[in-house]
Amino acid sequence: MNTHVPKIGIVSLGCPKALVDSERIITSLRAEGYELSPEYAGADAVIVNTCGFLDSAKAESLDAIGEAMRENGRVIVTGCMGVDEAAIRANHPGVLAVTGPHQYEQVVEAVHAHAPPPPEPFTQLVPEAGLKLTPRHYAYLKISEGCNHSCSFCIIPSMRGKLASRPAAKVLYEAERLVQAGVQELLVISQDTSAYGVDIRHQATPWHGEPVKAHIFDLAEALGRLGVWVRLHYVYPYPHVDRLIPLMADEKILPYIDIPFQHASPTVLKAMRRPAHQERTLDRIADWRRQAPDLTIRSTFIVGFPGETEEDFRYLLDWLEEAELDRVGCFKFEPVAGAAANDLPGAVPDEIKEERWHRFMTAQAAVSERRMKRKIGWEIDVLIDEADEDGAIGRSKSDAPEIDGCVFLNGETGLQPGDMVRAEVVEADHYDLWARLA
Predict the structure, then answer these.
(1) Domain count, the chain
(2) What is the DSSP secondary structure assignment for residue 78, as one 8-state letter?
(3) Does residue 330 have a known ligand-binding role?
(4) In angstroms, what CA-CA distances link 308 with 262, 263, 311, 331?
(5) Which amino acids does the record list as binding [4Fe-4S] cluster 2 (predicted)?
(6) pLDDT tens digit string along 190-224?
(7) CATH number where 86 lies
């Protein structure tokens, strides 16, 4: 009898939505008795979950596939770049299989074909909440797939399809299992979180006998009853988003909202096929902050978009100064194969993109530091991510993992990852805080 237990390695690239896909894949495999390999050596196969949003991401994905091929040689490719199988096989013809995004069953079938499962699966090896690639005290909660927008710079809908929302009850029962497993922070993600449920007409499903609509407000309100941090990402600024702010003010969910504004100039927003009412957005932001003074607003922007003039860029800098966003990321425009923006006139030279990016980051750093310095002397809750004999590193309610800042508790020993502590802020820069236990 064959007693070999196959081992599978996984390399997960891209955004948190892809990370959730990877978690679902490894949960399925572990339930069938597979072991997970942290190294290439000894793995019977390696899954590479790719990103294909930008050309730079595609290059990174191809490099990761190449590394897995060199180090192991038995590679199964999945994820967003999987829709371009020809490009993958042109660079790496020896890969075992290629599948597209969120095709969990096809990935598992490919593993079965090239590394058959052990004869008797050991389902007790899988925790009820599934396997996670994040630390045990926080987890991503995906509420939908795909997107209904047609932004000219984006090809996500062609890769991941139209919006497909999960029933609210399924999301909530998964959230409950995660909390019961020790998760203290739920990070709600999708391609367009505020559109959640539109495709299923906000159908209600029963959660503990109570109907909960598939609407972001109803879902957030229900998640807020679980007694953990609930953080919203990728929120498109529809009017109904205003209803979420009182939940934040009442501390039902975190006073944190991640809205990818992308630009402020009406001309550029029109070319991007984004809403071009940024003057009204400034009024809404001011109103949000009146209702929830501790609100943290995170966003991302693109500079150097085709047709962006110096006047457009200065408009963006002025808007940033007035909006006073807390956390901001910025990308230089990259043509993406298949995106409508590639055909727009007025391509911005790379050297001007670079110069504008630096000006943008310098301007935003001053805004961020000004807002961070206000927190000196505040007492804040800190969720600990790392701890050793020198102290601990955690995050405040204003900090999402891996993309925002940290709270450094130098010299504070005896803490463990997952601890929630109260601390007094003693120093700040434009990104991070330093604090001591209160």
Answers:
(1) 3
(2) E
(3) no
(4) 12, 10, 8, 14
(5) 147, 151, 154
(6) 989 999 999 999 999 988 889 999 999 999 999 99
(7) 3.40.50.12160
